[in-house]
Request: fold
Amino acid sequence: MPESADVITLLDEDGTEHEFNIVDVLDVDERRYAILQPMADGEESDTAVIFRMEDDALVTIEDDAEFERVRQVFEDTHADEESADEADEELSEDERGSTEGPGSTSH
Reply:
């Protein structure tokens, strides 16, 4: 886990503590949502959960349409970030390829 990651601990209804990595906080339809990734034994899960933030509480989203809207905004936001990261990587690879490598020769 990266050191800069924000981790919070939540208690379930049985009083059991669960750690979550804060993946993102989004504003959708004038409401704020937290995207959290469960952690077990210090390792991040492959899944994430979405909670609506109300005052100082995290509330489970019961409405399927609301959940779907937030999920879509999250996916769209992170797809844009991944595309930008991939473009940066391609640019870096192109720059390296034009200045370095065994195939480069000068005439």
